[in-house]
Amino acid sequence: MIAIGCDHAGVEMKKAVIEALSEKGFEFKDMGTDGEPCDYPVIAEAVCGLVTSGECEKGILICGTGIGMSIAANKINGIRAALCSDSFSTKFTRLHNDSNVMCMGARTLGCGLACELAEIFVTTGFEGGRHQRRIDLVSDIEARN
After folding, report:
1. 71-74 contacts at long range (C-beta below 8 A, 24 or more positions apart)
2. How far is residue 74's CA from residue 4's CA, in Å, rounded to a whole number?
3. Which of 12, 45, 60, 126 has its CA 20 to 30 A from that of 80?
4. 3-class secondary-structure state, position 65
5. 48 belongs to the catalytic site
6. pTM for this entry
7. Residue of 6, 63, 84, 115 marked active site
8. Contact status, residue 109 vs residue 64, Cβ threshold 8 Å
9. 96 catalytic per annotation
10. What pLDDT, in 10s, does the model give residues 60-83?
11. Which residues, at least 6 apart from 16, have a Cβ–Cβ distance to it below 8 Å?
């Protein structure tokens, strides 16, 4: 299960991602919005809560640039959110950083690219190994602060 949410800028992109990945067998828990103006931190917290609770394996957040969602998501313990705008970075944020939330900008990406990036994000695994040690160091920083 994938948690997904957007602010009012990302509604069309969210719909496109859900449609494209649903056709490939992925299921979603949609945390809104469906068009009404909203505050992106509220949506980010709702999606990330589903990820940290284990109810959803990964999360996808969409706002105008993806930056606000990324900032808000990374305030939540246990979340490693990455702003994704190209296939290489999207692939490697999963392989090396074990990112569990991707953020995208509806005003900076087209829906076609967003769907491609979302598929890369949800289908790419974490390599572990030396990268796990680094994730543990990040978790230590999080625990101290």
Report:
1. 72/40, 72/41, 72/44, 72/45, 73/44, 73/47, 73/48, 73/101, 73/103
2. 16
3. 12
4. coil
5. no
6. 0.97
7. 63
8. no
9. yes
10. 999 999 999 999 999 999 999 999
11. 111, 112, 114, 115
Copy the structure tokens of residue 82. 């990455």
Q: Give CA angle at 86 (92, 35), nearest 5°.
A: 115
d(CA 11, CA 62): 8
Burial class of residue 99 in the structure, from the number of CB atoms within 10 Å of its CB (0-12 exposed, 13-18 middle, 19+ buried): buried
d(CA 104, CA 117) in angstroms, rounded, equals 9
With tokens 């939540």, the residue in question is: 76
Q: What is the C-alpha separation between 127 and 115, in angstroms, rounded?
A: 23
Contact 61, 81 (CB under 8 A): yes
Residue written as tokens 């394996």?
Answer: 57
